[in-house]
Amino acid sequence: MNKIFFTPGPSALYFTAEQHIKEAIKNDILSISHRSKQYIKIHEETVNALKQLLNLPDGYQIGFTSSATEIWERIAENLIGENSYHFVNGSFSEKFHQTAQSLGKNAILNEVEPGTNHDLSKVVIPDEVELIGLAQNETSTGAMLPVADIEELRSRNLDKLLAIDSVSSLPVTNYDFSKLDTLYFSVQKCFGLPAGLGVWIYNERCLEKARQLQANGVYHDTYNSLLSIDKFAQKHQTSCTPNVLNIYLLGKVVQDMLTKGLDQIRQETAYKSALIYNLFENHEKLTPFVKEKKFRSLTIGVAEVAGGTDKLMEALGAKGLQVGSGYSQFKGKQIRIANFPTHSKEQMELLVDTINGLDF
Ligand SMILES: *Cc1c(COP(=O)(O)O)cnc(C)c1O
């Protein structure tokens, strides 16, 4: 029996993915050269579909990496000369901070307790900071930053670059991309694809910064440096052999999302999210980890489970429903429920009804 994965990534495959994988094999996608005309067409189609889905303005480009984790390194190497500023509210935003620090940057840390979030409007960022990093959706805790707060932060810091981790919230979060500089995600979260592909969106200001660091002799010209990624992206290619299958699948799934309509996807996400938080608020053994409603993630629900998670997760597993465990220090104490575009309303109703009917 195939389980339904409500895990926050990898998660359930997008409901059309299996068909696209079969087509890919039938059409030799897994064997073609990444310098062939066939590949170049796939690359271009995927990028164009994504630009359309996300409504990317002119001057914003898309590059591919192996993961979002890789993009943290590339941002630190290519977009920060000396000073960066990091809003940390959980494990993923913390990892970006650590990456910048390991690569020798003066990475200023602004950290809040897990389960809470930053009041961005109160924060004054030092002048010398070149890049601000934040996780719009912190997958480890289920805390989400409102887009309006992020835009306000940028409007007060227009001389700095703003880098957004939207790994587990795109394409659900609705951004005006002209109000941010760089944003990245991985395909195994909301896009419902196998892991192993990072997507990096960047603007002209990012390229300028990279060129400036290069001129100053503090730029690492590695295979996936931003300037190398961009040089190949202009030819609809990548610097090395990429995850061709995933680039192909991403284009197909984005087409399917365009056909369904992002408005529809966002409405369903809001409905399913209400089901999740209703459950958390009304079940005597569950408590939502994020208390403040405006900071609750739409795509990841995190709850503390009184008495521990083992019994609940086991009983759900026996019924073919796999929820995520708490992240790191919260393992055994919390569950995380992914609410991604592939999860249907019926599946979420089934999960909530099942939890309500269980004795744990
Ligand atoms: C999953 C995740 C990452 C890391 O993605 P990889 O593809 O494993 O590199 C980074 N940030 C957030 C918020 C995530 O959820």
Polypeptide structure, described:
By secondary structure, this protein is an alpha/beta fold. The chain has two domains: 4-12 and 261-357, Aspartate Aminotransferase, domain 1, CATH 3.90.1150; 17-258, Aspartate Aminotransferase, domain 2 (3-Layer(aba) Sandwich), CATH 3.40.640. It has helices at residues 17-26, 37-54, 68-79, 91-102, 147-155, 204-215, 226-233, 244-260, 262-282, 310-318, 345-357, and strands spanning 4-6, 60-65, 83-88, 106-111, 131-135, 137-138, 143-144, 161-165, 182-186, 198-203, 286-288, 300-305, 321-325, 334-338. It has a seven-stranded mixed β-sheet. Strands 1-13-14-12-11 form a five-stranded mixed β-sheet, with helices on one face. It has a two-stranded antiparallel ribbon with strand order 6-7. A hairpin with a 4-residue loop joins strand 6 (137-138) and strand 7 (143-144). Helix 2 (37-54) packs parallel to helix 8 (244-260). The radius of gyration is 20 Å and the shape is globular. The relative contact order is 0.17. Bound molecules: pyridoxal-5'-phosphate. Pyridoxal-5'-phosphate is lined by residues 9, 67-69, 92, 135, 139, 165, 167-168, 186, 189, 198. Pyridoxal-5'-phosphate (PLP) binds at residues 9, 67-69, 92, 135, 139, 165, 167-168, 186, 189, 198.
